[in-house]
Amino acid sequence: MPRTKGSKNKPKTVTVDFATQIAEKQSANEALAAEIASIIANIDTLKTDLKAKKAALKKAEKEVTTLEAKKAKADAKAAEEAKKAEAESVLKKLLAEGVSADEILAKLK
User: Coiled-coil stretches, from where to where (predicted)?
Assistant: First the structure.
């Protein structure tokens, strides 16, 4: 096969504008730096919000705990009063039936 005349390995003359590329990269870097600063500011804001929310949650949990304790105390008091009322009704019933005080004490024990 016949060869073509001239060399195919000629160096290509490419003119690259490095100043333009540098300017593009610098503007991209500045945009990324601004975005990073914005994200950092957003994170700081979120951290302060998180701290406030955690404090509010802790306060609410403490209030719930105190209310549960008060409820348990009130329930215990109501149960005790119910027992006392039941004991009194049983006592009145036994007295109405004519049972002696000694026999009542024996039944209570």
Answer: 29-97
What angle in degrees, to the nearest 10, is found between the helix axes of 18-97 and 101-108? 150
Q: Which two tokens stand for residue 59?
A: 């306060």
Give the mean model confidence (pLDDT) for residues 14-20. 82
**Could you read off the pLDDT of 25-66 as tens digits, one per residue?**
999 999 999 999 999 999 999 999 999 999 999 999 999 999
Residue length of the chain = 109
Helices (H) then strands (E): counts for the chain = 2, 0
Q: Which residue type sits at 104?
A: I
Rounded to two decimals, what is the model's pTM? 0.54
Q: What is the rounded distance in angstroms from the CA atom of residue 82 to the CA atom of residue 2?
A: 118
Question: What SS3 state is found at 36?
Answer: helix
Q: What is the 3-state secondary structure (H, E, C) of 1-16?
A: CCCCCCCCCCCCCCCC
Determine the Cα–Cα distance for residues 92 and 82; give it in Å rounded to an integer: 15
